[in-house]
Design goal:
The structure is a single chain. The chain has eight helices and ten strands. By secondary structure, the chain is an alpha/beta fold. The protein has a single domain, classed as Arginase, Chain A (3-Layer(aba) Sandwich). An eight-stranded parallel β-sheet has the order 4-1-5-10-9-6-7-8, sandwiched between helices. A two-stranded antiparallel sheet has the order 2-3. The protein starts with 27 loop residues before the first helix and ends in a 10-residue tail after the last helix. The N terminus is likely disordered. Bound molecules: manganese (II) ion.
Length: 327
């Protein structure tokens, strides 16, 4: 596997998403850095059922990123960025790097989907082996199925929280990884990986073939999240260790529309951030991904700002256990 990020300068000066140090995943073990989280791009949208375009996600996220004014010490520890509401120093003392992309871009169209998913599994496994939290930038939402395959091998107790307008469930009980696409990933997660999944912000309809839902799959409607807020959502959430996945179509398309399958209604950026940060502060994050924002020139700047902000705010809110775990 090759991380393709090009680094022209020592890592202190080479900036990745959110202005974080850019250290290709392949080179990380030789740097002596002990990362708390490693962000990687997954420029893949072969799991899309409609019009593609999410393959540009990592590129958009980096080019149009928020330029946080980090100070990075020689061990990669971050400081220097304060939140104006709380005064807290974001990610203080933590080591968070952008590890480049897990796949070449553009992809060789002859590569079978299974091979691509297996490369994602391998990349995420390597990050977990470093004791760090993997943070994936999609890509379409099928990348979550590959990431979960890697996570569940090391974290059998993990619960999954997905922010999504859609349930991404079709009732199939025997899917293999190679058959996953962005609209059935929860069939794979619930039945193949045996995971418990909560889908928050959901508001699409569902066909009878997928009804009734298995007990392990919990829809938490968009309207309910809006009326009850993050605290009530957390009070009912039964997992202690969580993998979090954000499909950007959870946001109200009137606020953010650069996504392939928008559904009217939806939550605001602030409610999404408040729920993510509450979740990160209250439970232990074992992985995070953000997917399904597509190349739309007039929206790319907003996408980049959204993605970089969501990553930093979520990681910055994480409990002190966002630290390398023994492997
Ligand atoms: Mn969706």
């Amino acid at each position: 596997m090759t991380a393709l990020a090009v680094v022209h300068a020592p890592y202190e000066q080479a900036r990745g998403i959110a202005n974080l140090p850019l250290v290709p995943l392949d080179e990380l073990p030789t740097t002596g850095l002990v990362p708390n989280a490693v962000i990687v791009g997954v420029p893949f949208d072969g799991g899309t059922s409609g019009v593609a375009g999410a393959r540009h996600g990592p590129e958009i996220a980096r080019v149009f990123s928020r330029a946080y004014p980090w100070v990075v010490d020689r061990n990669g520890r971050l400081s220097g960025v304060h939140d104006l509401e709380t005064g807290a120093e974001l990610l203080s003392g933590r080591v968070v790097v952008d590890g480049g992309d897990l796949l070449p871009f553009p992809l060789d169209p002859r590569l079978p989907r299974e091979q691509i998913y297996l490369r994602i599994v391998e990349g995420v496994s390597r990050i977990l082996e470093l004791g760090a939290v993997p943070v994936l930038i999609g890509g379409d939402h099928s990348v979550t199925a590959a990431a979960l395959s890697a996570v569940v091998a090391r974290e059998p107790e993990v619960g999954v929280v997905i922010f999504d307008a859609h349930l991404d469930y079709d009732g199939a009980t025997n899917l293999e990884l190679k058959e996953v696409h962005h609209a059935n990933l929860n069939s794979f997660a619930v039945h193949h990986l045996d995971l418990a999944v909560t889908v928050a912000g959901v508001r699409d309809t569902l066909g009878s073939e997928a009804w009734p839902l298995p007990e392990r799959l919990r829809p938490y409607h968009s309207r309910r999240l809006k009326s009850s807020g993050p605290a009530d959502f957390l009070a009912e959430l039964p997992y202690e260790r969580v993998y979090i996945s954000v499909d950007l179509d959870v946001l109200d398309p009137l606020a953010f529309s650069a996504t392939g399958h928008p559904i009217p209604g939806g939550i605001s950026y602030e409610l999404l951030t408040d729920t993510l940060t509450a979740l990160a502060a209250d439970r232990e994050i074992v992985g995070l991904d953000l997917a399904e924002f597509i190349n739309e020139p007039l929206s790319n700047e907003l996408s980049g700002l959204l993605i970089s902000s969501l990553i930093v705010e979520t990681l910055a809110s994480a409990r002190s256990d966002l630290s390398p775990r023994p492997t």
